[in-house]
Design goal:
transferase, binds iron/sulfur cluster, about 350 residues, Rossmann fold, NadA_sf, binds 1,3-dihydroxyacetonephosphate, alpha/beta, four-stranded parallel beta sheet, about 45% helix, single chain, six-stranded mixed beta sheet
Length: about 350
């Protein structure tokens, strides 16, 4: 039963004490968040992993790229476990390293040494290593603006991987006109751009989040007509059109802080993953909160981590077996850490 599973998790946590650390991303299910030692957005969890020197085992409740990041930022003796190996990220999968090497070669032919690569942390360790090796940095949704500003102090053009929306929204906020942004299509290995390539300042990798693409202009139009006094807040993985029509946009941490600080009685439509929206509804009963898309949008891979998988991973550790350990090869870690450190030093 659920009670029995919860009891076992508690027992194992108690047995391991500070030797066991369970970070949980804001998109995780309540049944998992309940047992997390720290919850946070991607940046907070990366910082928490880097700061933890005590834990021998880090059971990461989030998706694969986050566990890879934790492995790269912790010491060799600390072991990172992902409770379900199928917990990937469809956005991270949209940029593989072969496509990226191929793109870089072509972009160098066109633009020479004028481009700096930046990657959203939602990317594989290999992509982070590519970025680190080429002088760039990782970014998260809570520091993208700061990091893009930094990037422009290094080079005149940016290649932003793998989320076109976070890249476009951030560059737009910094004053880069949409006409100066091109799309890189990794399937055709071509730039998608109508004008003169000399004018391009930002090259957006053609990737997106399959959860956030479900929040649409039609959802906003409908709400503006039916609930004109509703505030709309979305994650910057939503499209430019959706962000432009919303009242607020920001990382999961920003969304939580904004809702918590809002006045009682205010109304909010939130455009982000379902588990977080449901938790905010539950924790802010004094406000009226709905999902921007009435069909609540789950991240299927985040949801693969559940209580049974968490318990299964913990019971493995209890028996002395480390199952689903995430190990990033040394040669990749070496370069990827350069990109991660450039971010952690700048925020
Ligand atoms: P943040 O936690 O940085 O807001 O990112 C959201 C997300 O989609 C993580 O996969
Ligand atoms: Fe990836 Fe989107 Fe899921 Fe985040 S919400 S893990 S970006 S698919």
């Amino acid at each position: 039963t659920t009670e029995e599973m919860e009891q076992r998790v508690r027992e194992i946590k108690e047995k391991f004490g500070s030797k066991l650390y369970i970070p949980g991303h804001h998109y995780q299910k309540d049944e998992v968040i309940k047992f997390s030692d720290v919850t946070g957005d991607s940046l907070q969890l990366a910082q928490a992993a880097a700061a933890n020197k005590e834990a021998e085992f880090i059971v990461f409740c989030g998706v694969h790229f986050m566990a890879e990041t934790a492995d790269m930022l912790t010491s060799e003796s600390q072991k990172v476990v992902l409770p379900d190996m199928r917990a990937g990220c469809s956005m991270a999968d949209m940029a593989d390293i072969d496509q990226t090497d191929r793109a870089w070669e072509k972009l160098q032919q066109v633009f020479g040494d004028t481009i700096l690569p930046l990657t959203y942390v939602n990317s594989t360790a290999a992509i982070k290593a590519f970025v680190g090796k080429n002088g760039g940095a990782t970014v998260t949704s809570s520091n993208a603006e700061k990091m893009l500003k930094w990037a422009f102090t290094q080079k005149e053009r940016i290649l932003f991987l793998p989320d076109q929306h976070l890249g476009r929204n951030t560059a737009y906020d910094l004053g880069v006109p949409l006409e100066k942004m091109a799309i890189w299509n990794p399937i055709t290995n071509e730039l998608e751009y109508d004008g003169n390539v000399e004018d391009i300042i930002v090259i957006l990798w053609k990737g997106h989040c399959s959860v956030h693409e479900n929040f649409t202009v039609a959802n906003i139009d409908h709400l503006r007509k039916t609930e004109p006094d509703m505030n709309i807040i979305v994650h910057p993985e939503c499209s430019r059109e959706v962000v432009a029509l919303s009242d607020y946009s920001g990382s999961t941490k920003y969304i939580i802080e904004t809702i918590e600080a809002a006045k009682p009685g205010t109304k909010w439509a939130i455009g982000t993953e379902m588990n977080l929206v449901n938790r905010l509804i539950e924790q802010n009963k004094d406000k009226k909160i709905v999902s921007l898309n009435p069909y609540m949008c789950p991240c299927l891979t985040m949801n693969r981590i559940d209580l049974p998988h968490l318990l299964w991973a913990l019971e493995g550790l209890e028996r002395g077996e480390i199952t689903n350990q995430i190990i990033v090869p040394e040669h990749i870690t070496k370069d990827a850490v350069l990109a991660l450190d450039r971010m952690l030093e700048n925020v």
